[in-house]
Amino acid sequence: MSVLGVGVDLVENARIEHSLERFGERFLHRIFTAGEIEYCQSMKFSARHFAARFAAKEAVSKAFGTGIGRAMGWKDIDVHRKPSGEPFVVLEGGAKKLAEERGVTAVWITLSHTEHHAMAMIVIESA
């Protein structure tokens, strides 16, 4: 196993909540996948969960060293949950292509949030 990259991001929940209030559906559908939207909206404090997924997308792009833009888009990074509650990442589009080119064998994720902040850490590895 070889670590190809590590990414961390911290988001203020209020920033995401403000974007949700100001831009609504346009913001949601630009940044998040349908599954992410469904999951987060089912939670009592949905902005916290959206913020954690936003942080995860940023952290993945940092781990690859590309940022969000030309190499990968927001919705190319999809955060899911196992029945146990453990999050995992599914890469699509440009992110999937980049992972294949670099020989990525695993993407590890951890998420955390409080009343005010959400964070994500990503480790990408190859064989």
Descriptive account of the structure:
With 127 residues, this protein is α+β, with helices and mostly antiparallel strands. The protein is 44% helix and 32% strand. A hairpin with a 3-residue loop joins strand 4 and strand 5 (117-126). Helix 1 crosses helix 3 and helix 2 (34-41) packs antiparallel against helix 3 (46-64). The protein has a three-stranded antiparallel beta sheet with strand order 1-5-4. It has one domain (2-126): Alpha-Beta Complex (Ribosomal Protein L22, Chain A). The chain is globular. The protein has four helices and five strands, in the order E-H-H-H-E-E-H-E-E.
Defining traits:
single chain; 127 residues; alpha+beta; Ribosomal Protein L22, Chain A; three-stranded antiparallel sheet; two-stranded antiparallel sheet; 4 helices; 44% helix; globular
